[in-house]
Amino acid sequence: MRYWAAAKAAAGVAEEPYEAATLAEALDGVRARHPGELERVLRRCSFLVDGDPVGTRGHETVRLADGGTVEVLPPFAGG
After folding, report:
1. Which of 12, 26, 35, 57 could crosslink 20 through cysteines, CB 3.0-4.6 Å?
2. Is 76 a residue whose pLDDT tops 90?
3. Is 3:41 a contact under the CB 8 Å cutoff?
4. CA dist 56 to 53, 66, 74, Å?
5. What is the DSSP string of 17-55?
6. CA angle 27, 41, 72 (to 5 degrees)
7. What is the pTM of this model?
8. Pfam families attached here (predicted)?
9. How do the residues of the chain divide into helix, strand and coil, expressed in percent and rounded to 5?
10. Structural domains of the chain sorted by starting position, each given as residue range(s) with its CATH number in brackets
């Protein structure tokens, strides 16, 4: 799990390992480890799984590969 910008600040770490079969399970684990501000930030984030945007797909349908990377991207200002 790799955090960027406000997500990184709220998590207090730049990245951390996860054990999950789906994005929903991985995010449940993140919420359990980092209650509070990160939970609020995650509501506004978009996600990349191994470089591919998740978009509007249900997080429970997004499968994660062993050793893969989830990028947590809060909205960025500017363009």
Report:
1. 26
2. no
3. no
4. 9, 23, 15
5. ----SBHHHHHHHHHHHS-SHHHHHHTT-EEEETTEE-T
6. 55
7. 0.92
8. ThiS (PF02597)
9. 35, 20, 45
10. 2-73 (3.10.20.30)
